[in-house]
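Hey, can you fold this one?
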Amino acid sequence: MHCPFCRHQDSRVVDSRTSDDGASIRRRRQCPACNRRFSTIETASLTVVKRSGATEPFSREKIVNGVRKACQGRPVSDDDLALLAQRVEETIRGSGSAELDANEIGLAILGPLRELDEVAYLRFASVYQGFGSLEDFDAAITALRADREARDADADDRVEDAPEV
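Sure. Predicted structure:
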């Protein structure tokens, strides 16, 4: 690691700590030439393979921008989008693969987006999954309704089973 002050070609690690819940490592370094200290942050790189075969580094910002279009006009804040992008990245990193298809990222987005906003989910899924007819929308809406009814029934069961105070 080059020293940012004197450009010496070497430095030694003085201290290492994990940050971002273990997603990165912060290292405190010292230059042997000028004795100045500086910090570096190291993260494992993720590479995305696009449909065309081109590769590019993973970017949370691209996820936020893509999902933001689906959320346009919906009650979804920038903080919600940032949390969604973080969840997607954690899911992808949890797979253990350093290189993944863009399709895998889209699949990882669908679950958290469905929980965040059902309308935005339908918009994103219609483009991502290539809905070609009203039947595709109808099938997706039917699945959303069934999931909602199952969640509501499960919540009702928990209320009934709760001990009385």
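The two ends are 62 Å apart (CA to CA). Let me know if you want another pass with a different chain boundary.
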